[in-house]
Amino acid sequence: MQVAKESSFRMDSSEAATKLETTYERVRLLASGNAVVVFTISSCCMCHVVKQLLFGLGVGPTIIELDQDKAGREMHAVLYQLAGDGQQPVPAVFVGGKFLGGIETVMACHINGTLGAWHRVRSKKDKVTGRNMYGVFWRFA
């Protein structure tokens, strides 16, 4: 049996920082790539609640299942830093590329009525298809 050297598993601090920055950039690009993005774990019941709430409101969010993504652990670490104050990092809801929050924030907004209406807004024509593109924006009451 061959045992890998311990040093092969270590990353120096600059490598770790670079990997974290790359992962942060990936999370940022995913979050800003669609109107509503939810980072979840497929077996998480609170993630299921947030997804059902959004679907019930007529929103079709982009869902990123961290346990199905090969960089899921790294993205989970980035979300943990974004959540802060000991909050659970998933579900993590982004609206318009901005971090809205997790289950507590989304449910609080829904209960107190500040979880605004979703609006379809006509934007410009797609250059490839020639069809009108539609976007969704978030409005707080």
SSE arrangement:
Layout: H1 13-32, E1 36-40, H2 45-56, E2 62-65, H3 72-83, E3 92-95, E4 98-101, H4 103-111, E5 118-125, E6 132-138
Parallel strand pairs: 1-2
Antiparallel strand pairs: 1-3, 3-4, 5-6
Could you walk me through the main structural features you see in this protein, from its secondary elements to its overall organization?
The structure is a single chain. The chain has a domain at 24-118: Glutaredoxin (3-Layer(aba) Sandwich). The chain is built from four helices and six strands, in the order αβαβαββαββ. It has helices at residues 13-32, 45-56, 72-83, 103-111; strands spanning 36-40, 62-65, 92-95, 98-101, 118-125, 132-138. The strands form two sheets. The protein has a four-stranded mixed β-sheet, sandwiched between helices. Residues 1-11, 117-124 and 132-141 have low confidence and may be disordered.
